[in-house]
Amino acid sequence: VVAVGDELLYGQTMNTNGSWLSGELSRIGLKVRHRAVVGDVEGDIQAAVASAMEGSEVVLVTGGLGPTPDDLTREAVASCLEVALVEDAALVEGLTARFKARGYETLPDQGRRMAMVPLGGEVLPNPHGAAPGLAMEGKNGRICILLPGVPREMRGIFTRGVEPLLKERFPDRLQEILHRIVNTHGVPESMLMDEIRTVLPEDPRQVSLAYLPDEVGVRLRLSTRQEDGLESASRRLDRLEQMLEPVLSRYRYEARSGDLAEAVGSALLRAGKTLAVAESCTGGLIGKRMTDLPGSSRYFLGGVVAYANEVKTGLLGLEGGLLAEDGVVSREVASAMAERAAILLRASAGIGITGIAGPSGGSREKPVGTVWYAVHLDDRTVARKELFPGDRTAIRARAAHGALGLLLRLLEGREG
Amino acid sequence: VVAVGDELLYGQTMNTNGSWLSGELSRIGLKVRHRAVVGDVEGDIQAAVASAMEGSEVVLVTGGLGPTPDDLTREAVASCLEVALVEDAALVEGLTARFKARGYETLPDQGRRMAMVPLGGEVLPNPHGAAPGLAMEGKNGRICILLPGVPREMRGIFTRGVEPLLKERFPDRLQEILHRIVNTHGVPESMLMDEIRTVLPEDPRQVSLAYLPDEVGVRLRLSTRQEDGLESASRRLDRLEQMLEPVLSRYRYEARSGDLAEAVGSALLRAGKTLAVAESCTGGLIGKRMTDLPGSSRYFLGGVVAYANEVKTGLLGLEGGLLAEDGVVSREVASAMAERAAILLRASAGIGITGIAGPSGGSREKPVGTVWYAVHLDDRTVARKELFPGDRTAIRARAAHGALGLLLRLLEGREG
User: Which chain B residues are Cβ-neighbours of A190 within 8 angstroms?
Assistant: First the structure.
């Protein structure tokens, strides 16, 4: 997949086309081997396409098919494949009508360029714009397909023209890979790997396992080819999941969006519980995360953002002595915050969180990253202290995630 | 710029690293020639890096430096450059300490791989994670730099290690384009363009103006080449800004981070005011936005997340009749929320916000996207109604932005 455009190389535009095509090709079972981005330079486009056609049986090129002088893809690819460009009468007619509708009397020369087709190439109609897609075959039988860069046009042509063409051309290749994602929380990547190795000492056959870590957790991707049918493939992933279960049962959570807050919401709903929060260092982030999801009013009541200490002792009603004795970042304060949130908002569960997100405010005893969070649930309050690495944003995200994870484990009876 | 990772080729993850690096390299004046994405296949990584090193003087590779068996970048690049990998004692020490902090007695073998450095290579410390960046020189004098794939780690290493290295190495290439960003809020792109056309009817010479819209506002980028020195270039941008001033003065705000919340924070600090919020549909987002910034405790006290109506009438103390009469999404409720927040938290300013973020809950009179927000400041309460387009996330972001913009204009005396 080759994307053409200076705006991509300047970083002013994300290459969403590349990602989208990757996803679509994977979906229909074709393996994407390589993706490239080049600027609006004829030689660079030629080189990228030539190199791609050496390594892959199908090359998709997006961008550079429009009417402006910096649209050079058509010419670059034609010369790369050593074919002439010829004017297509039907395209000229369609473009003329299109330009007339916009108030032009005749088709301008620039617009006319969009009617040029490589000799022997196939035109793929564009349902949403002027420049059509083009499909052609190289001397080595390899296929090169040109698509406009405007995402909606590119997607329309792909779905209507390219996908059917590829399915017809490679019927035996379209054995989809079956993926299954398992979300985990509360365990770092390397520790998860070590634990998984104890239950899965050798790489299993026919299935594969990938770790996809992000700032707050690790997703596991279980994959297998489904040459022998969806059912067998699905059974292979079931077996792999069963083998991993002793480890995963401690860390996994179910959420279609991959978001831990969604799992917490479902667990609250199942348990018939409501949640209130009292946030200091996260400043509203947990409430924001919980209400990102539609329907959260069924279990999330709200909370108090007690950023200033006066709000902790005032509106939230903590005893002043508590802050003085143990300090604001302490088990006692986090626990009292969780309890007071639940009481004040008449919720069945409360989260309290207090910490030092930095960059300043740390001390030797309580360095930046020190966070105490507590969950109050069913007349019981559990508190945890953590020292999170990273900058202010990471510490806050990890703190929110830690508190939500503790609540989830308590709701599911997984916390001792 | 080469990005490594199966998840990128499957379309499961966007290649945000490629875009970000493109933008940074452009900013310091280096031209990005080619970007590539390859999977976790040693041969493919080698081929991509070898080809990149033929075409460009500097090659940046992201991803594949972690501890898992599918992290192959280090090995692939070393063999591509024909250098051995050797263990770095300082790195072993750092990694051992890191793993000990997480409860490991010794450094596991997998973790140890992150201490391997190509012979003669330079270690670029990772401020946010375990795997360091690595810089090495090929036989042809060309530079290859390896960075982890986790965006925050990659960015941290680039800024601290790679940017200084490139600036030192290519001092004569860094004929920067001088950019100046002007942040605006409260005006849509097309209206801003129309207004700017009234003060700038023709494209100015030697300078250029780009509109960078995002979900909540439009940034203007003023650019000029600085071949004739920084001072002349800077004067050209000054002149352009002066011409635009009649329009910009109504919409611009000053914030180094580009974040409207930063401008609000500075304005509160200048005015010696403190802020409390009462959030319904945004669920904590405004508090989160205000406390994203370090030092926000000087002006942000906290607030009440009044997501459930019982919290609005209970903890926040709104009269029940108010909700029944005018409905929860109304001028009266938003205004009362702003006032109660200020009173309860003893703040000099209060924000109240209530609306329908969707996807459900809309009606004919109050469709999804209807938001009332109010600001209470100095014995005066100003409320606004808006109908925001977009999905739940966009509506919430725009609502928070709208309320912060209103507060800023009131603090700066720009609101009538």
Answer: 67, 99, 108, 110-111
Please list, residue by residue across A166-193, b when 16 or more beta carbons sit within 10 angstroms of its beta carbon and e when fewer do: beeeeeeeeeebbebebbbbbbebbbbb
In chain B, which residue's Cα lies nearest the Cα of A213?
B150
Rounded Cα distance between B186 and B401, Å, is 9
Write down the pLDDT at residue B174: 65
Whether the pLDDT of residue A1 is over 80: the answer is: yes
Q: How far apart are CA A46 and CA B204, in angstroms?
A: 35
Instruction: Kindly report the number of other CB atoms within 10 A of residue B79's CB atom.
Output: 17
CA A355, A360, A363, A365 dihedral sign is positive
**ipTM of this predicted structure:** 0.76
Quick one: closest CA in B to A25, which residue? B10
Q: What is the pLDDT of residues A224-237, one digit of tens each?
A: 988 788 889 999 99
**CB < 8 Å from B in window 362-391 of A:** 387, 389-391
Whether residue A235 lies within 8 A of chain B, CB to CB, comes out as no
| Closest CB to B287 among A10, A283, A297 | A283
Q: Are A321 and A307 in contact (CB under 8 A)?
A: no
How far is residue A144 CA from its own chain's centroid? Answer: 29
B19 → closest Cβ in A11, A191, A221:
A11
Interface of A with B in 3-42 (CB under 8 A): 8-16, 18-26, 31-39
CB A269 within 8 A of CB A200: no
Helix (H) or strand (E) run with residue B405 in it: helix B392-411
| B218 at interface of A, judged by CB pairs closer than 8 A | no
pLDDT band at B147 (very low <50, low <70, confident <90, very high): very high
Please tell me which of the candidates A36, A179, A291 has its beta carbon nearest to residue B284: A291
The chain-wide mean pLDDT, for chain B, equals 91
Q: How far is A109 from chain B (nearest CA, A)?
A: 25
Task: Determine the distance in angstroms separating the CA of A285 from the nearest CA of chain B, rounded to an integer.
Answer: 5
CA gap A222, A178 in Å, rounded? 8
Sheet holding B177-184, edge to edge: B207-213, B218-225, B177-184, B252-253
B111 and A190: CB-CB below 8 Å?
yes
B38 interaction partners in chain A (CB closer than 8 Å): 33-35
N-to-C CA span, chain B: 50
Which amino acid appears at position B140 of this protein? Answer: N
Residue B367 identity (one-letter amino acid): P
pLDDT score, position B158 = 96
Nearest partner of A48 among A19, A96, A5, A10, judged by Cα: A5
Of B57, B49, B70, the C-alpha closest to B31 is B57
The three-state (H, E, C) secondary structure of B335-363, written as one string: HHHHHHHHHHCCCCEEEEEEECCCCCCCC
Report the 10 Å Cβ neighbour count for B201: 7
**Nearest CB to A307: which of B128, B291, B294?**
B291
Q: Which residues in chain A touch residue B357, judged by CB atoms under 8 angstroms apart? A: 294
pLDDT 10s digits, A234-251: 999 999 999 999 999 989
Higher pLDDT, A29 or B168: B168
Query: For the segment A133-184, what is each residue's pLDDT rounded down to a tens digit?
Result: 999 998 788 999 999 988 888 999 999 999 999 989 888 776 667 888 899 9
Sheet holding B370-377, edge to edge: A380-387, A370-377, A349-355, A275-279, A300-306, B300-306, B275-279, B349-355, B370-377, B380-387
Residue B175 confidence class, pLDDT cut points 50, 70, 90:
low
Residues 58-87 of B with CB under 8 A from A: 66-68, 70
